[in-house]
């Protein structure tokens, strides 16, 4: 049956379109009448399509003719096709000249995924100011700059090298070579010999022997040295005192002496009973009386002017390591850990007992106003007692207001600040070597400073915001510290040949007397008296001013 292609619907007129309306019944009957038969070969390579009577489906178009396989200049024969289909390729044949794929397709690498915010970016580790390029890079750079000898005139390059003095392909900026060793080794040997003298822990040596981080300097030599034969080398004792009448008391074994600074006179006050020794001394507030503690536990009271013993107060069962006065009350610290208040005016002298230490009490200081008493002991404890006890009677006992256990060694060094009464300084022994500053009102610790050796005594300056500390092994030093910064203002190393165990300050506040196991008393000028106070005291004044200083020289 001949095939007549239909005109596209968009070119047909409305009259060519079927006028029969399309309804569901017409569509169903049309689908039932559809019959499709298999195509049959009708000669050659043409195929006939089955007749379709469905008015809505047009007759299929003829199948595309089979394309003949051809190749550029090579005629494809039937034998070549059979060989290609069987996979056999002859060596030397025409088929061997075809391009044969011998490798699989390799896809290009995928782009790297974007890093997350938490992944650090790779940074260039090179320094933009200091070059670390290799010689090949330097040569390439010089080549670009037309300075490479291979690309420039040899004569011109030689002139550049001679003019600049810089070898080619080398850095222009470089470190200088180390200076040659000194031919004379005398100075080096001297430094090695003197090195141990400056190896004290915590010290900063200087050419004068004093250590200072400020402009103020102190004399590193004592103004006067007194012999003190028989001075006991015992950390727990207190064998020095300086009265307001400019008199120094010192205990030498079983004897007690006073040295009058104004006249230089030395007087023996008393002698301890046979078989015992003097363990502590302290002047009364007015300097008229001297309290002497004995190793047997007795406390003696002496008149300084007449040199007579007024009374002896017993009751303690161990040595009296420390004494402290306030008014008519003389407080004594005993080796059994107790502290007694003695009223020197009455026959029954013991008016109160303070129990707050489990070891020997070796430090004891009344505050100037008499409201508080500080004590330190071999149990590493600092106690601050209330001195306002009111009416007292025999057998009365007190309880410490503040108890501090910050020290890790025996506490002997105690000092109240004269220009800020609420401040108390305490220093620990060898295993502690620390000074703590306490607020006696709140009980809080304000400052602390670690020092290179055991702290044996502390003295506050009445004119400057500074305090002095004396030390034992290994420095045997005297140190001056600023307050409240606690900076070390000055240091006198090896102030004595043995550890500096005792100290006391002059009434004028400018001199400090120290005692040590080397059996010497040394007087040091640490501070200066303010000018306005010098004018008030005049040439006849007390203290180490006017005629008083002449006696020391």
From TrEMBL:
Boundaries of every CDC20/Fizzy WD40 domain copy: 226-524
BP GO terms, sorted: anaphase-promoting complex-dependent catabolic process; cell division; positive regulation of anaphase-promoting complex-dependent catabolic process
Keywords, comma-separated and alphabetical: Cell cycle, Cell division, Mitosis, Repeat, WD repeat
Presence of keyword Repeat: yes
WD repeats (start-end): 278-312, 354-386, 493-526
Positions of the UniProt region annotated as Disordered: 1-21, 103-124, 534-553
Top-level taxonomic group: Eukaryota
MF (Gene Ontology): anaphase-promoting complex binding; ubiquitin ligase activator activity
Pfam families according to UniProt: WD40_CDC20-Fz
Cellular component GO terms held in the UniProt record: anaphase-promoting complex
Family listed: Belongs to the WD repeat CDC20/Fizzy family.
Full protein name: WD40-repeat-containing domain protein
Organism field: Russula ochroleuca
Organism lineage string: Eukaryota, Fungi, Dikarya, Basidiomycota, Agaricomycotina
